[in-house]
Amino acid sequence: MLRPQDGPTRERRRLDGLWRFRTDPTGEGRDAGWWRAPLAQSVEMPVPASYNDVLVDAAVRDHVGDVWYQTTVRVPRGWAGQRVVLRFDAATHRAVVWVGDEEVVRHEGGYTPFEADVTAHVRPGEEVRVTAVVDNRLTWESVPPGIVSDGPGGPRQDYFHDFFNYAGLHRPVWLYSTPAAHVSDVTVVTGLSGSTGTVDYRVEAEGADGLECRVVLSDATGEEVASGRGATGTLEVPDVHPWRPGEGHLHDLRVELVDGADVVDAYVLPVGIRTVEVRGTEFLINGEPFYFTGFGKHEDLPVRGKGHDDVHLVHDFALLDWIGANSFRTSHYPYAEEVLEYADRHGIVVIDETAAVGQNLGMIGGITGRSYPPTFSAEAIGDAGREVHAQAIRELVARDKNHPCVVLWSIANEPEAHTDSARAYFEPLFTLTRDLDPTRPVGYVNQILASADGDQLSQFADVLMVNRYYGWYTQTGDLAAAGPALLAELQAWARHGKPIIVTEYGADTVAGLHSALPQPWSEEYQVEFLDTYHRAFDQVDAVIGEHVWNFADFATKAGIIRVDGNKKGVFTRDRRPKAAASALRRRWRGPGPWRR
Ligand code: GCB
């Protein structure tokens, strides 16, 4: 799905700002038709933001179910005769949208965009009411999963991941125009052969019968380097300047639908020419071995929760640069497209993950002492849940397929992986991802119960991604025992003959807590913990990446193992470095044995 953009044939307007907002604790709004009138008893709520922490109200923070958002927008007069589209970059976790009195779109999944052609429901120059009901409930048929039950104070939401279930309109909302005949999708696949770059392109258009498709590729200076005609083709770029880690060199692919000399529609797609390949235990970008340094992150900030914010976007990337990180994982859901575009422009490498987290009821039951049905079964995540997961993969690939920064798909975080039912659930999802995108490696992120011998999913993965917490959840405080246990396990995984990225390792650390003898929770312990891991990584050639958990402290649900959130951040929630930050900076910016 193409991002809205301004151009000679298109315009966009952001609907961000203060919207009318109301929770719907009894779920009456859908029957009562709250979209038909100005939202009664509403308060003002900023968009984009999670609604949870904005108001100081437990009933809003812990609300389970529907909330209503509404705004009024004037459609620009100049859009007469154009097609008008309403797009939500995200509504977490599902939404129904009305324009005036008419339902225009509904969408499942909290982290991918959706849109509706609303031309028939608006009149250029006039105002129109836009209403969205957003439902934050997690069930066996959502990704991620959860359980809603009745509690004394109303519905209760349980879920199987630690980060707080922030909800609302987290990302921009757009009204945009295109001509009736318009470019509806573009797919590019890039290649390198010696000093020549190639761009295979495929353009989809609607209402464009009789129009010709023309494409022009230009370099960063705006100079044309290749051009083509027709909806599909291959462009060749001699002496190409590729996109590479640390240098986000982009070309612009300008796609035009033309009628003789008239340009009916034009769309410009940034293109990074690069290749990705797994060979043996190496991960190659442009044919050169790449070693991932960086973090698993979260979209998480004080007050705004998961609300996208350009200030923090730039600041987080500045910190990644400062510390020497060349990559991150979008744990545990697709991030705002602004993040990927920024990574494209700055040469930061991304592992792009779906929102499938918490699909491991055996592990959760072990931690909580509660009993659950088998994870992948008709009583828990069954066929309907898998179809939602499949759709989440389709939408992720459709949205992110053209980003050069994305080099690897992660289709789940720490699912159950040692059972036949897990294999039966995941095999088709791996196949689906490869069918959708044959050009990028695919993997999933495993956890400690998935041993190198017992795991049934790694056979389908191109890259092994492992999360390990020796010295924290096991061998707590005992790094002398943790190091050898980690090394032995990595050596066992290395026998699979695939590249290994350690996608999580970390220790909760209270900023400012010091201890001469490195004790868990102290800054010294976090430094020693990471050091212990790095010594092990440097002994296993198949380890081709290290992502510390986590970039920054983040909010979690209430629980007895978290004090004011998850404290495994190398930065605090307000982005102040802990001692580990300087230690990582020395490793990642230094010559490092990992640069092999
Ligand atoms: C994990 C999860 C991550 C948690 C982390 C922790 O394995 O993937 O979501 O936050 O452990 O700190 O427990």
From TrEMBL:
Residues 13-179 form the Glycosyl hydrolases family 2 sugar binding domain. Its EC number is 3.2.1.31. GO terms for biological process: carbohydrate metabolic process; glucuronoside catabolic process. It holds the Pfam family Glyco_hydro_2. SUPFAM superfamilies: (Trans)glycosidases, beta-Galactosidase/glucuronidase domain, Galactose-binding domain-like. Residues 276-589 form the Glycoside hydrolase family 2 catalytic domain. GO terms for molecular function: beta-glucuronidase activity; carbohydrate binding. InterPro entries: Beta-gal/glucu_dom_sf, Galactose-bd-like_sf, GH, Glyco_hydro_2, Glyco_hydro_2_AS, Glyco_hydro_2_cat, Glyco_hydro_2_CS, Glyco_hydro_2_N. It is an enzyme of class 3 (hydrolase). Residues 181-274 form the Glycoside hydrolase family 2 immunoglobulin-like beta-sandwich domain. Keywords: Glycosidase, Hydrolase. The keyword Membrane does not apply. Belongs to the glycosyl hydrolase 2 family. This is Beta-glucuronidase. It comes from Geodermatophilus aquaeductus.
